[in-house]
Design brief:
mainly alpha, 18 helices, Rhopdopsin 7-helix transmembrane proteins, Arc Repressor Mutant, subunit A, 396 residues
């Protein structure tokens, strides 16, 4: 059992090294800052898991002595995860100089503790009392590092509490924007983000608690513990690989300061992707898109996603989104809502819908909320739907 548990610890470390390399590949192909931060998050966590397993299994005396110093790199895990999530959600996110402040605990702890472990490894104990005497347990040989390790854990707990607050503030701000747009895709992503953020802090809690819970690495309890860590780690790896900030931001922020009557400005990555699509393929995709909408009316589904259409047309979501932006001069949400508004106008002209409430007509056309319907219809026709309907009835 001990060999099996040892292998699981190493599996997480090597696995995260692979995710780090994969994330770098995504960054080089997509030029997404979210991918880059994700890569370093997985590398940092994998490195700390490796150090943790060295500490548990006491492989070498030298590394065991250096463990508390190396463990200070644990202060980089929560900031990197926070910045990764922030880069996924914040409009036009750029890594600013002030973001370095997130790593001050890491730098301060490393600078403060480096001399301590240098004196230990250099066998110069006469200087320990002079510099770190108040932190040493002089009557407990072999436990000189105990108080410092406890201090690191205490600071880590404080750091986690701080980032729980920061995540709460971030999600509240994004929810405020999301409610204005009523985008189902964004809502689903936010719910997923919250789930994985919760699991991240569960993972951190497991790592912190391992210092105080006695588990035998040769027993089943040790196996269950490492399997829990492994499962949560794979979950965060999946989140970083599965979700890209490019499609999400086209959905969440394409309406910001944008006039849908003009084509949106494409970024460099989008321009390259558009250039990669031949004129023939582009024309074919547009024709298939319009035919599909005419024949199947997918916009009547209030939960319609870009992925659903891309799957039906057997194309890439990124290409499809860019083509909609470039050809129709509007983002995916506005593109869908325009079809729904046309359907609303059709229903206004049908006598059998005269007794329908405005909410009933909106739902029949595929809108999932009244606020979204009113905002979309006013943008589409220049009038509130109630005004448009009353004017139409007056002309009958």
């Amino acid at each position: 059992m001990e060999i099996f548990n040892h292998s699981l610890w190493l599996l997480i470390s090597y696995q995260n090294l692979g995710f780090f390399i994969l994330g770098l590949y995504f960054y080089l192909t997509e030029r997404s800052i979210a991918r880059l931060i994700y890569s370093f998050f997985m590398l940092s966590f994998g490195a700390n898991i490796f150090l943790f397993h060295i500490h548990l299994f006491e492989h070498t005396r030298g590394l065991t002595i250096l463990f508390p110093l190396l463990l200070t790199t644990v202060f980089s895990i929560a900031p990197l995860y926070y910045l990764h999530m922030k880069s996924m959600l914040v409009y036009k996110y750029r890594f600013e100089v002030n973001e370095i402040l997130h790593f001050v605990p890491l730098m301060v702890s490393a600078i403060t503790l480096a001399p301590f472990w240098y004196l230990i490894t250099a066998n110069r104990p006469e200087y320990l009392d002079l510099i770190y005497g108040m932190f040493l347990l002089k009557k407990q040989p072999g436990h000189q590092t105990f108080l410092i390790e406890t201090g690191i854990v205490a600071l880590l707990i404080i750091q986690c509490i701080y980032y729980i607050i920061r995540f709460h503030q971030l999600f509240v701000a994004i929810h405020r924007d999301e409610r204005k747009q009523g985008n189902t895709m964004v809502t689903n992503f936010l719910n997923t983000s919250k789930l994985f953020t919760f699991s991240f802090f569960m993972l951190m809690a497991l790592i912190i608690a391992r210092n105080y819970v006695v588990l035998d690495e040769k027993s089943l309890s040790g196996t269950l513990y490492i399997l829990a860590v492994l499962s949560l780690n794979i979950g965060h790896a999946y989140f970083g690989i599965r979700f890209s900030d490019s499609d999400l931001k086209l959905q969440l922020y394409a309406d910001k300061k944008t006039d849908d009557s003009h084509p949106q400005q494409l970024g460099e990555a989008e321009k390259q992707a558009l250039d990669a699509i031949s004129d023939t393929l582009r024309a074919e995709l547009i024709e298939n898109l319009e035919t599909y909408f005419l024949e199947h009316k997918p916009y009547l589904n209030s939960k319609l996603r870009l992925e659903d259409i891309a799957q039906e047309l057997q194309t890439n979501t990124r290409y499809l989104s860019i083509i909609i932006n470039n050809h129709y001069g509007k983002n995916f949400t506005s593109f869908i809502n325009d079809y729904r508004c046309k359907r609303v106008v059709e229903l206004f002209h049908h006598d059998e819908y005269d007794d329908y409430s405005m909410d009933g007509i909106a739902e029949s056309a595929g809108f999932h909320s009244r606020s979204t319907f009113v905002a979309a219809f006013k943008k589409f026709s220049g009038k509130l739907p109630s005004v448009y309907r009353n004017e139409l009835r007056a002309r009958k």
